[in-house]
Specification:
The complex is a heterodimer of chains A (about 600) and B (about 280). Chain A is mostly beta strands and about 600 residues long. Chain A contains six helices and 37 strands. Chain A has a five-stranded mixed β-sheet with strand order 5-4-3-2-32. A five-stranded antiparallel β-sheet of chain A has the order 31-30-34-35-37, with no helix packed on it. In chain A, a hairpin with a 4-residue loop joins strand 7 and strand 8. The radius of gyration of chain A is 25 Å and the shape is globular. Chain B is mainly alpha-helical. Chain B has twelve helices and seven strands. The chains are: A mainly beta (about 600), B mainly alpha (about 280).
Chain lengths: ~600, ~280
């Protein structure tokens, strides 16, 4: 059949022009809106504040003698093509902990490179810190595997800090002796299973007075320094099931840890990045939230007697596929906490957002991150609620940035191409991945400070030292540097120097703080809740959970800003085993030590 | 009421119309998307897309020809949008559906729409609403069995719609383009070919590039069309353009009316319809 003769009209050419114009204009609009750096990273643009910031942040690491550069994990030569990726996930961690029990908080910072030293900076009580890791036996701990997250706690209730160190392979348990030195006591416990692990937390889940451990492996059991299998990268970007396990270790009365078979029913498909612990329902029992990447998060409620119940379906479906940090706090002072989960948000590529889950009465959760203004930071990692201006309202600090190397080599596109396929064999096999060399992935991003202004947070990053600082931060730990009630924070940096921030709240702002010592409860008193009742009717509530967050541990004291004129009516302490005690007449402006059983008895919950 | 219906008619697809099968195919995958933990779809998002698409389709048909249509095309576009659009919000699903179906009614030449409605809506919204939405390239999981089922169903649909030539040539063009892309960028071929087995590629091959109205009117031209779309997509991939598949199809489709006018378009039967008069003439 012969075709009809040509009949080209202007409208036909018009559609060609329209098509081309839409693509070109759209392309330009995308670049104008999101790309404000000379490379392919699309960062969040932090707006200037419309009101003056009432606190001032300063980076003071060099000034106070903290000098630590995180050395990154280097896998076996057979995995050299993805070494930057593994190094970026290995990240950098930091713990703010009173190692020597002198009442002044010290700093322990890690590296994940095999053979590199970790560093312990002891607080000299004069505003300076002195590196003494070797003296405490905590320097040379990266011979076989690199450190990922230290977790200090007192497992035998002897009043001295011990430490669980999860690593790029096998976990290690250290016990601190009377001479202050830490010794490796891993062999006495069931820590024989090994995997690349970033998530750990301390929780006395069965309320027997001894702190138990929960560990969430990220990758499956592969030794990256000598891999025998090559199917360990996530299978796809949405719901990978080939990650590591979640393990629960029961504390056998301070003698050793026994792994609970079946992990109390916590079934995991792996890829845990952090474990948040908090009493979400006011039951007096601590629940567990698992932030998972490449899939949906998991939440287990503690029904008592060592029973955990999976209520993950109560978390609404969302785009939480890259969850990193879990931080929990009663942000709006109504007694019902928020679970803050950081996520990857990249305009134009990944519309995921940070989640701020509000626990509802029916064991369901509603995300309020957009209502509260904390939904977007970028490729967000560690997070920490901390009252930077001492007004009693918790502000939020978020670390940011995945991998910043060569500004012109963006590996994300290749990575998305790989994980967008349907062949697990290709995606999960690192040997199929093109060499990363000096590539970048969602790097060069500024960290975020969200300033709590009552009902809503304001992005205050523009007016802080974070502006223009494009380091790849990971762990964030809150710390009171010199017991003056000004709680700043540490930020561990991937392949960079540990950063220390001091805050200067408004002159005349008041505060009070508490150190808690358990007697019937585990001595750490992790999980104890303190409520400061103010005369104006406000109820400031904090739970002692220093292990929450991501690759960090915070100052194990509870701090309450009181604003310029906050007057304390009473202080209520609910200890982990349920005893409730009340304190009155305590002066503000200092830390008080509460010992379980020494306050005025209240009700027993 | 009688006055309103005077001369009106109800138009619906005959059982031989390929859109029945296409709707079943897409519907089954929407069910998968709503129930799968890897897909983060909520019923509200499906409702936003479907209601917007159906309302625009029905209203446009009535406005144009006083015809009530069973809005299969609107439904297919809406279901496709639920599968292709990825947003934590609900409104982008309505926005994409609106842009898609309005393009179908407004951007027309020679009595037919120019762009694949779903691809047009996705492309425009990906370009201009990229802070709020993206597409679902990595949301399909990695189960080979699911992908095989998707491929088989898709092949059946394009065979029934007589558009297997476009699907096959697009796949060939994509493979050839990927080889050139890998060679030019110095990337290992498996990494570049990885999306070939993914759900996103399947959906695009069997659902997007095969739109009977916006593809050329002869088999030879359709084969050339498929090859060029596959190659063009890889040019976008080489320059690391996100959403390269949408942009490639959008660009090539914009040239089709011009080439069809130049070469002479042959009329063809696309949909098989039935009519029922609703009122007196």
């Amino acid at each position: 059949m012969k075709s009809p003769p040509p009949s080209i009209r202007p409208v036909h050419v018009g559609f060609v022009l329209l098509t081309t114009a839409l693509l070109v204009v759209g392309w330009r609009v995308q670049r104008w809106r999101y790309i404000h750096t000379p490379h392919a990273t699309r960062s969040i643009v932090h707006p200037a504040l419309t009101e003056p910031l009432t606190f001032r942040l300063e980076e003071i690491a060099h000034e106070i003698g903290i000098d630590h550069r995180t050395e990154m994990f280097e896998p076996a030569p057979s995995l050299r093509n993805i070494a930057p990726l593994l190094g970026a996930i290995a990240g950098a961690s930091v713990a703010a902990v009173d190692v020597n029990g002198d009442g002044w908080t010290d700093v322990y910072a890690t590296s994940s490179k095999i053979g590199s030293p970790n560093r312990l900076f002891i607080n000299q009580r004069d505003g300076r810190f002195l590196e003494q890791a070797a003296r405490f036996g905590l320097a040379d701990v990266n011979r076989r595997a690199g450190s990922l997250k230290p977790l200090f706690f007192d497992y035998d209730n002897d009043g001295r800090q011990d430490m669980l160190l999860v690593t790029t392979y096998c976990p290690r348990l250290f016990h601190q002796g009377p001479d202050g030195r830490f010794s490796d006591v891993t062999a006495g416990s069931d820590f024989s299973r090994c995997a690349f692990t970033t998530a750990s937390n301390a929780v006395d889940y069965d309320q027997d007075g001894f702190t138990d451990l929960v560990v969430g492996e990220h990758f499956r059991d592969v030794d990256f320094t000598d891999p025998k299998r090559f199917d360990f990268i996530w299978e796809n970007g949405s719901y990978s099931v080939n990650g590591g396990a979640i393990r629960v270790f029961h504390n056998e009365k301070g003698k050793r840890f026994r792994e609970i078979p079946g992990a109390l029913g916590i079934k995991s498909r792996g890829w845990t990045f952090s474990i948040g612990v908090y009493d979400l329902r006011g039951t007096g029992r601590r629940d567990l939230y698992f932030a998972m990447t490449h899939g949906s998060d998991q939440l287990f409620l503690n029904d008592g007697g060592g029973r955990l119940r999976d209520v993950s379906p109560g978390i609404p479906k969302g785009d939480s596929h890259s969850a990193m940090s879990t931080e929990v706090a009663d942000v709006d002072e109504d007694g019902h906490p928020f679970v803050m989960v950081t996520d990857d948000h990249e305009p134009g590529r990944d519309p995921s957002i940070n989640f701020l889950w509000k626990s509802l009465k029916d064991e369901r959760f509603r995300n309020q991150s957009q209502d509260k203004g904390v939904h977007a930071c970028g490729f967000a990692w560690g997070s920490k609620f901390v009252d930077l201006d001492n007004d009693g309202r918790l502000d939020l600090v978020v670390a940011n940035g995945f991998l910043s190397q060569n500004q012109t080599f963006d590996y994300r596109y290749i990575m998305d191409s790989l994980v967008g396929g349907g062949s697990r064999k290709i995606t999960a096999d690192p040997r199929a991945w093109p060499p990363m060399n000096d590539a970048s992935i969602e790097g060069f991003q500024e960290a975020c400070v969200f300033w709590n202004r009552g009902g809503r947070f304001v992005d205050a990053s523009y007016d802080t030292p974070f502006k223009g600082d494009l380091a790849d931060e990971r762990g964030v730990a809150a710390i009171d540097w010199n017991n003056d009630g000004r709680v700043g924070f540490l930020m561990a940096v991937r392949d960079g120097r540990l950063k220390a921030y001091r805050t200067t709240p408004p002159a005349g702002s008041r505060w009070i703080g508490f150190k808690l010592i358990g007697r019937r409860s585990a001595r750490d008193a992790f999980g104890a809740r303190v409520v400061v009742l103010l005369k104006d009717g406000r109820r400031l509530s904090r739970e002692l959970e220093p292990g929450n967050g991501f690759l960090s541990e915070s100052d194990a004291r509870l701090h309450f800003g009181l604003g310029l004129d906050g007057e304390i009516e009473a202080i209520e302490v609910r200890w982990p085993l349920g005893l409730v005690e009340t304190y009155r007449g305590l002066p503000a402006g200092r830390y008080h030590t509460f010992t379980e059983g020494e306050g005025a008895r209240g009700r027993r919950s | 009421m009688a006055g309103v219906l005077k001369g009106a008619k109800l138009v619906y697809p005959d059982w031989r119309d390929p859109r029945w099968l296409q709707t079943a195919f897409l519907g089954s995958f929407v069910v998968f998307a709503l129930s799968s933990p890897s897909f983060t779809r909520r019923p509200a998002q499906l409702a936003a897309s479907a209601v917007t698409g159906l309302v625009i389709s029905v209203a446009a048909a009535w406005w144009r020809s006083r015809t009530f249509v069973l809005p299969f095309s609107g439904l297919i576009s809406s279901l496709g949008i639920v599968l292709l659009c990825n947003s934590h919000f609900t409104w982008p699903y309505a926005a994409v559906a609106a842009v898609s179906l309005l393009s179908r009614e407004l951007l027309r030449v020679d009595g037919r729409h120019v762009y694949n409605p779903t691809n047009f809506g996705m492309t425009v919204c990906l370009l201009f609403l990229s802070g709020w939405m993206t597409t679902t390239s990595s949301r399909w999981g990695g189960a080979p069995s699911a992908m095989a089922a998707l491929g088989c169903l898709g092949a059946l649909v394009v065979w029934r719609a007589n558009r297997w030539d476009v699907s096959a040539s697009y796949a060939l063009g994509w493979l050839g383009g990927s080889w050139l892309y890998a060679a030019a960028a110095g990337l290992p071929l498996p990494a570049v070919l990885a999306p070939f087995t993914g759900g996103s590629f399947m959906l695009f091959t069997f659902f997007m590039v095969t739109d009977p109205v916006t593809t050329p009117s002869t088999r030879t031209r359709r084969i050339v069309f498929g090859l060029v779309v596959g190659l063009t997509e890889n040019v976008f991939r080489y320059y690391q353009a996100r959403n390269a598949a949408f942009y490639g199809l959008f660009l090539v489709t914009g040239f089709v009316p011009l080439f069809e006018a130049w070469l002479g378009r042959r009329e063809q039967t696309v949909w098989v319809l039935r009519e029922i008069p609703l009122g007196a003439k």
